[in-house]
Structures are given as C-alpha cells and as structure tokens.
Amino acid sequence: MPIEGFWIIKFTAAQIYGSGVAVFSGGKVYGGETGFYYLGTYEADGSVVKARVLVRNFEPSIASGFGVPGDYEMDVSAILEGDTMTGTAVVTNHPQFSLGIRLTKKANL
After folding, report:
1. How many CB atoms sit inside 10 A of residue 56's CB?
2. Burial class of 14 by CB neighbour count within 10 A (0 to 12, 13 to 18, 19+)
3. Distance in angstroms (rounded) separating the CA atoms of residues 26 and 92
4. What is Dmax (Cα atoms) for the chain?
5. Could you give phi then psi for residue 35, rounded to 5 degrees?
6. CA–CA gap between residue 33 and residue 20 (Å, rounded)
7. Domain total of the chain
8. What's the pLDDT score for residue 64?
9. Any idea what the CATH number is for the domain that residue 63 is in?
10. What is the pTM of this model?
C-alpha cells in the first residue's frame, strides 16, 4: 500500500507552526514531535486517508500550541497524491482547534 512508510509532518494554524514524524504501517500510526508522541489508526480509501490519533504529552514543560493541557485525540483527514498528503487535523470534539497538515513520504517500509 503506498501510504505505508516513514513520513515527515508540517502543520500550521493561526500562530502555530510545527513539525514531526509519523510511521504508517498495517493500519497503525506511530509518531511524534518535541514533547509529544502519537499513537493511532488509519484507513485509506483510494486517495482519501482518515486517521484517529492520540496525542500524548510526555514532557509537561512543553505546552500544546492549542493550549490544550495533557493528552488529546485528533481526527485527521487528508488526500494522498504520490508521496504527499495534505489535509486537516482537528482535536476530537473541539473543531475550533484545527491544523492544516502536509506530510511528505521519506521512506518505504
């Protein structure tokens, strides 16, 4: 499946810019960024990719760009085109907290 691999992530929102990494494999997502790690699941239907990702804050001195304390879940929706995915990530049940995301595949598994 073309989605399986190692990806870099860039995300933006009002006054938020960040980056991280993710591995997509067998319907699971693993990744992280400074102070946070991601665990989740994904489904791909053609070029549409949907994921639910738990974002865990393992370093409390690093705050979420949203100001959301501790751990939270995000719903991700993206379009896969070659080695790029673009879309949005929204804090589950809090649509006011959303990010534009762009993922670039760096390696196959």
Report:
1. 14
2. exposed
3. 23
4. 40
5. 85, -5
6. 4
7. 1
8. 85
9. 2.40.128.380
10. 0.92
